[in-house]
Every structure is written in structure tokens, then in C-alpha cells.
Amino acid sequence: AMNLTILPESSADYDVIDHILLDAFKYDEEVRLVRKLRSSSLFDPELSLVAISGDLCVGYTLYTPVTVYGDETRFVKIAGLGPVAVRSDFQRHGIGTAMIEFGLNLCRAKSFSAVAVLGYPAYYPHSGFLPASHWGLKLNFPAPAAAQMVLELEPKSLDDMQGPDHYLPEFDNV
Residue range 104-117: average pLDDT? Predict the structure, then answer.
């Protein structure tokens, strides 16, 4: 693959991150979402990651806290993955996968039990994601079931969890 450095964003990266998101998604909802998430008290800048190749920022991904409730007494600390964006002229070089893997290791180190993603069903299984329905979970989004996926970081942590999950409120109306 290519020589890639993955590290937490800095405020100097904000403009180029906006451009990467616009380039990858072709509309500005993701830009607005990321800007809102940065102002959340639960936002962790160490989980807001840029991929650098040479002196270019070529990719961006973000993990945010999500809570899934089993019942009143039990909840699981999981992370929501997304957006994941790579500059269109750098796609298909493994950058997105590298950012995801790097972030999953950070999530393990930060004691997240699982990671949820809403995304392309053909892409995320490469990194170990399974349909949320595998655990009987439903993500709190009006999206096809196949696009709702979860990866367990801590084995059996999602057993007996009903959901629904609770993303940060900044995700509402996206």
C-alpha cells in the first residue's frame, strides 16, 4: 500500500477535512454533522482521525460514543464509526480500511465494547462488521437493515442487548 500516517485531527485540518467530506460525499450534510459533533461535550478529538500521505491530508474518519441499553441496569459503551471519507483521487488504495483498523485499535484501548456503523454492506464486512440484526440490535436510523452493522470488540458484550442505540443528538436530522 502507500506510505500513510494516521493521527488525530488538529484545528489546522478542519478546512481540508471539509473538502475531503465534500469530495467523497458530494453534499454538505457530513460537513455540517462533523462541525456539530466537534462542539459536543462527548466529542473525543483523539478519535477524529486524518490520514496523511506525503504532505497531503487524503482521508478522514470519526468515532463518537453511542450507548446501547439492554435494560435499565445495563448499557454497553460502543462507538459509532462515521463518516469515513477518502479523497476521490486516492480511493481504492486501502486508506479507508487503514483508518478504520487504526480507529478500532484506539476504541479497544479506550474500553469500547463494540463499534456500530451505518454504511455500504459490501465494504465494512472486510473489517469484521456484521449486520446489527446478528445481535438483534437496531440502529436508530431510518436505513436499510443491511447498512446497519456492528463489530464486537469485547466478545459477548452485546449478548442480551435489545437496543435501540442512542447516538449523540447531533446525528438527529442528518
Answer: 93
